Amino acid sequence: MTRFRITRRAVLVSLSLFVAVLAEQRNAAADDRPNIILMIADDQGRDGLSVAMAPDVAASTVFHTPRLEAFAAQGRRFSNAYAPAPVCSPSRISIQCGRTPAALHWTKAAPAETGHRMIEPRIIKSIPYELVTIGELMRAAGYATAHYGKWHIGGGGPGAHGYDEHDGDTGNEQAFAFTDPNPVDLFGMAKRTEDFMRRAGEAGKPFYVQLSWNALHAPGNALEKTKAKYAQLAADGGTSKRAEVAAITEDLDTAVGMVLDAVDRLGVAGETYVIYTSDNGAGGGGRRGALSGGKGSVWEGGIRVPFIVRGPGIAAGSWCHIPIVGWDLLPTFCQWAEIGEAAIPPEVEGGSLVDLFARGDEGDVVRKRSELVFHFPHYQSGHTPHAAIRIGNLKVIEFFEDSSVKLFDLAVDPGERNDLATERPKDAELLRRRLENYLLSVGAQMPSLDPAFDPAAPPPPEKQRGERKGAQNDKKPRKSK
Prior knowledge:
Layout: H1 3-26, E1 35-41, H2 66-74, E2 76-78, E3 81-82, H3 88-97, H4 101-104, E4 118-119, H5 134-140, E5 144-149, E6 165-166, H6 173-176, H7 186-202, E7 207-212, H8 224-229, H9 231-235, H10 240-265, E8 272-278, E9 287-288, E10 291-292, H11 300-303, E11 307-310, E12 318-320, E13 324-325, H12 329-336, H13 354-359, E14 372-376, E15 386-391, E16 394-399, E17 404-409, H14 425-441, E18 448-449
Parallel strand pairs: 1-7, 1-8, 2-12, 3-13, 5-6, 5-7
Antiparallel strand pairs: 2-11, 4-18, 8-11, 9-10, 14-15, 15-16, 16-17
């Protein structure tokens, strides 16, 4: 019907033909392509686990994630890993489609705020049928596909976008529906994953499974025994919320361990890649540990996330410091699945990370554009509409209310404490132009000045922020098991 719909059909048809030819060439031999498990935590910043995510930054002493510590020791950590957006849904659709949230016109999860100097742009709130997803590409290439946990991008749910098995068109309500002994469905997801992997093996098919963990939402639903372990954290001057987050973090770590144990039990560790990351940074305050900002901002604390990968050919206990981002995952998985470039939608902006996984800093990632752009033309957590661009080690943040910019050298200042815009005006202007040219090239939606704005009026209520518990889904949540 439309150009995009034709492109989508052509992609899936070509992939189906590819699978048939591949099967004939292999003469019914066992499929030797690797399995892939992608785990995405919710609202877990780079400092939200007891694994150091940069060699010069100490691991958190608040959180206890022993299974992730062991996992990191088995694989490669990325110190410059980014979520596509500083909030949930835009990151999730970006990962599914291999494009930036700016290009997809989905840059916020929470409702728009009003009463500010600028009017936020309207965004889509449901993944369009025309977009080709990781699930569709992998399924058409002969993989068994599953998505468990939080979907949160509508469009009919995972089943309408390439996933054989799934939990439905879920959002944040999924976390609140499950309590002890299955906190936020962490253990249920792990068990369903093991059953799915077993059946895929019996069918002789490689598998792709995405676990979009519901944690760290609904931290009060953590196991009672885990919450008791962290009760002293609140008594020592912390908050009860902080203690609950620490508890649900450990429960999440336990679920990650359950999946890794299942991989070992099924005997597929040697042919399975496992990736652990997050959808955005944590909190919303002015500084998150060594980083500035948090969820709802494109300062480093809002978009820098943990990223660990384990699998065949990946050196144990290794590092990579080259910047990567969530929209790189689609072309990465396509390379593992032996999906040719001709079958990948031309709009995909990411580059395969396979070389970096194997060779670390000696490797390379090739994208259509060298810059990484993070666009958040919205108000949230006290932040005004802004966008950022990173080229090499330099990063510019542009603030749309007054068109001001800040320039940082992340190689020496990852905490973004030293603004170099006045000292290095040519660099600041060059990056600003690159940022604005990119946003124009993808038709990014921009905020506009509100002619009715009254600067003398009281500011809007602070708690007009965040995602509501039910997200965009109105159906009844599942009961705890």
